């Protein structure tokens, strides 16, 4: 299983169970990299996720004048530039990181720089108009030089004005980009979201004392114009990534009598809707909050026990808070009794892959009955899984990991091709899989 660049053969697991900690939260790591890099002085970060996506964001901030290194204890030390961003020497490559690109677009919009943000082929196919439009309304010049409104994105920033903006689609990335731009705008910037999305940016800005105001579905920041930031470096502890832990929660839920515990995992209520879905499907879920965890991001210990799964309907307001977990949800739905219908998830069409089409194709290859719609899919179970040597990641880390979890419950090994993409979010995925199945 070591060579992620080639096919990975995943064998059925005789047992699944145990207790592990997963790597640090990816979404928080991106935001910590940005905010600590523009602070005054040094920040010390525990649990920063050393995956390709987050390291691309860290390198981009270095190109803008911050300095960062991992010390002998694997702590990330970031020396901030005090908000005085440098003009980078050339385009900044964000690899596969849509989060990094969109958040940096917001940051750069408020600075008098001319910067081009780009990435790999997958990133250059994802929609960027949704972030360009509000930044242009604030006064930045944003040029989408890729095809169909995609990256590369050229940003000419400078003096911004605060705006009130209603997000047309629930998106934590676009919301965060606007809030970051709002820190450097004149006046108040307000974002209204149509449904609650993950709120890591708001929590971090609040912890930094930046006067963020939240009233129902409206989030506002008071901008300081082009002044340097008003915060200093600090010590941060990043909890384990809930979306990484979800693969192991799913693996346990899908097999009666199995128990998996993840310790130190993030329990942000905007991220844990997947646990509610597992409960509805019949799994037993036990959550123990860590009472001494950082107040800005709750964390704790979660145990999931398999009791047999039944099909459910998933949609509406819960979708934004389990959007990353839908591929593995679709995978274990193949093992549930009855029909699982996922709707209102059209956003999956424009992720690292078209995740609706990718999961449907892979599930059909192992004998699962699937129907797709524009905004979701219906999976009928329980399926008698057949082995396949033709499962594809489609260059998408979550597709590869979701199919690996399903293969654990098959009757013979399955080959998953092009698994190098897993390194973008969970470099130790297969080591953790081995820990829980040996």
Question: Which properties best describe this structure?
Answer:
24% strand; UDP-n-acetylglucosamine1-carboxyvinyl-transferase, Chain; 4-stranded mixed sheet; globular; single chain; 2 domains; 12 helices; alpha/beta; 438 residues
Percent range of helical residues: 25-40%
Strand order of the largest sheet: 2-17-19-18
Could you say which structural class the secondary elements and strand pairing correspond to? alpha/beta
Main sheet makeup: 4 strands, mixed
The CATH architecture of the largest domain would be Alpha-beta prism
Looking at the structure, the CATH topology of the largest domain is UDP-n-acetylglucosamine1-carboxyvinyl-transferase, Chain
Radius of gyration: 21 Å
Number of domains: 2
Report the sheet-strand fraction.
Answer: 15-25%
Distance between the termini: 14 Å
The tally of beta strands, per DSSP, is 25
Q: What is the CATH C-level name of the largest domain?
A: Alpha Beta
Assign an overall shape.
globular
Number of helices: 12
Q: Summed up, what is this model?
A:
The protein has 438 residues and is α/β, with parallel strands linked by helices. The chain starts with 7 loop residues before the first strand and ends with a helix.
């Amino acid at each position: 299983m070591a060579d992620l660049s080639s096919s990975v053969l995943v064998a059925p697991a005789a047992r699944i169970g145990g207790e592990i900690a997963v790597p640090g939260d990816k979404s928080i790591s991106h935001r910590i990299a940005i905010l600590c890099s523009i602070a005054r002085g040094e920040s010390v970060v525990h649990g920063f996720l050393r995956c390709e996506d987050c390291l691309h964001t860290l390198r981009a901030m270095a190109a803008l004048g911050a300095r960062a290194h991992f010390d002998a204890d694997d702590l990330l030390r970031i020396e901030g530039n005090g908000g005085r961003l440098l003009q980078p020497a050339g385009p900044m490559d964000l690899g596969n990181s849509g989060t990094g690109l969109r958040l940096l677009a917001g940051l750069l919009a408020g600075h008098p720089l001319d910067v081009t943000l780009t990435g790999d082929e997958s990133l250059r196919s994802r929609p960027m108009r949704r972030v360009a439009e509000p930044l242009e309304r604030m006064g930045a010049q944003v040029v989408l030089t890729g095809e169909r409104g995609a990256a590369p994105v050229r940003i000419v920033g400078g003096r911004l004005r605060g705006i009130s903006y209603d997000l047309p689609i629930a998106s934590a990335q676009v919301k965060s980009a606007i809030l970051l731009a709002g820190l450097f705008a004149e006046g108040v910037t307000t974002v209204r979201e149509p449904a609650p999305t993950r709120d890591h940016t708001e929590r971090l800005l609040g912890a930094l004392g930046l006067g963020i105001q939240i009233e129902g579905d409206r989030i506002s920041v008071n901008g300081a114009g082009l002044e340097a930031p008003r915060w200093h470096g600090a010590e941060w502890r990043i909890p384990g990534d809930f979306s990484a832990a979800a693969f192991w929660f799913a693996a346990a839920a899908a097999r009666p009598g199995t128990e998996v515990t993840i310790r130190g995992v993030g329990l942000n209520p905007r991220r844990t809707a997947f646990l509610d879905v597992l409960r509805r499907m019949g799994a037993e879920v036990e959550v123990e909050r860590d009472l001494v965890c950082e107040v800005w991001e709750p964390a704790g210990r979660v145990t999931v026990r398999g009791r047999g799964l039944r099909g459910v309907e998933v949609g509406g307001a819960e979708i934004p808070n389990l959007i990353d977990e839908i591929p593995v949800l679709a995978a274990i739905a193949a093992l549930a009794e009855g029909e699982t219908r996922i709707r209102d998830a059209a956003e999956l069409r424009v992720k690292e892959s078209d995740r609706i089409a990718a999961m449907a194709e892979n599930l059909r290859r192992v004998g699962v009955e699937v129907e797709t719609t524009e905004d979701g899919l219906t999976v009928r179970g329980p399926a008698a899984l057949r082995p396949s040597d033709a499962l594809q990641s489609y260059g998408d880390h979550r597709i590869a990991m979701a199919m690996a979890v399903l293969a654990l419950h098959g009757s013979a090994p399955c080959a998953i091709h092009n698994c190098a993409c897993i390194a973008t979010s969970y470099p130790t995925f297969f080591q953790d899989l081995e820990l829980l199945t040996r």
